[in-house]
């Protein structure tokens, strides 16, 4: 069947918030959040070969660059979907960057953040809104 090999079904968990720069946010416990790249981003990048993340304790603002992701296809900046202080980074990505491709919403998470203002996520997309954004 022509073209079928490129038609992968990507998931967008409904409990997450999504931004148009292709990061997701899982808000936990009020102002704590886990951030990573979406399945769409991981799929578009291809095999991830390197991830550069910020240092724990670093404070970043909304839309500020928090890292870099490299793949066999390209190099892309990573942006904060909301401002806050980095409380943890996924150290496993230093030796296992492929976790982003294998499980972007689970073991492939990138940073944990104590959000300064949860309201900064008010313009973030729902799963359906993000799916519509990447399909268009």
Give a summary of the structure in a few sentences.
This protein is an alpha+beta fold and 136 residues long.
Describe this structure in words.
The protein has 136 residues and is α+β, with helices and mostly antiparallel strands. The protein has a single domain, classed as OB fold (Dihydrolipoamide Acetyltransferase, E2P) (Beta Barrel). Helices cover 18% and strands 32% of the residues. The strands form 2 sheets. A 6-stranded antiparallel sheet has the order 1-2-3-9-8-5. It is globular and about 35 Å long. The two termini are 24 Å apart.
Q: Layout of helices and strands, plus pairs?
A:
Blueprint: E1 17-18, E2 23-28, E3 32-37, H1 39-45, E4 48-52, E5 59-60, E6 65-71, E7 75-79, E8 84-89, H2 92-95, H3 99-102, E9 111-115, H4 127-135
Antiparallel strand pairs: 1-2, 2-3, 3-9, 4-6, 5-8, 6-7, 8-9
